[in-house]
């Protein structure tokens, strides 16, 4: 049966989730997965993976969930073709990071793995050297490397605004849409200048919650440790002609 992921806000009190599950069952659907994304101020944000018999009933499903007092549906999306457990997927990515033996492959693994894990529209590893450069990326319509580097610098310094004077649309020449952004350091690197490497992730229409940002930081921390342990890329030395040449 088709799977859908429904993100809901609900009261953080006993019985609230049970009431939601009861409404879901009323449209012949089952909850097959739950992710608790955030809790605080008497509210919780959960993602429910729901197996529904008839996809034509999704609108009815949302209406039924909304009938529960204090519950709001934030977002609904089809689940991936293969249902996976986010915790297992995160562990798989962590294992791949820990066992990596090549810096470039490790960076590519972090970029592609985080894109899949968070359902991101795009992810990029950006060298903070002068000038900045995109080292690895997944997705389309990325902002320019300069814009992403400026955003990463602002995030590290505690700024909460977009980089001034540098438009992502103007920089790329296209219709780039900047969605919810997250940034994490991959550490200093001989390969990428003294300011190192930054990982940026964007996901439109669906805010990144506290648990997701925490998971991203933990995976990035593991990647920083592994990158620091791997040898840096070396530049081949120039060939010196022999005296007989």
Task: Please characterize this protein's 3D structure.
There is one protein chain. By secondary structure, the chain is an alpha+beta fold. The protein has 2 domains: 3-78, Alpha-Beta Plaits, CATH 3.30.70; 86-229, Beta-Lactamase (2-Layer Sandwich), CATH 3.30.450. Helix content is 35%, strand content 27%. The chain is built from 7 helices and 8 strands, in the order βαββαβααββααββα. The protein has helices spanning 16-25, 58-66, 86-98, 103-118, 145-156, 168-172, 210-229; strands at 3-11, 29-40, 43-52, 72-78, 122-127, 133-139, 180-187, 197-203. Strand 5 (122-127) and strand 6 form a beta hairpin. The longest helix has 20 residues, at 210-229. The protein starts with a strand and ends in a 16-residue tail after the last helix. The model is unreliable at 163-178 and 234-242 (pLDDT under 50).
Which stretches are low in confidence, meaning pLDDT under 50 for 5 or more residues running? 163-178, 234-242
Q: What is the 3D form?
A: elongated
Biggest sheet strand line-up: 2-3-1-4
CATH topology of the largest domain: Beta-Lactamase
Sheet with the most strands, sense and barrel status: 4 strands, antiparallel
Count every beta strand, where a strand is a DSSP E run of 2 or more residues: 8
Strand content: 25-35%
Question: Separation of termini?
Answer: 74 Å
Rounded Rg: 22 Å
Number of domains: 2
Specify the CATH homologous superfamily of the largest domain.
Answer: GAF domain
Number of helices: 7
CATH class of the largest domain: Alpha Beta
Calculate the mean pLDDT score and round it.
82
Query: What is the CATH architecture term of the largest domain?
Result: 2-Layer Sandwich
Counting helices, strands and paired strands, the structural category is alpha+beta
Strand and helix order? EHEEHEHHEEHHEEH
- Helix coverage percent: 25-40%
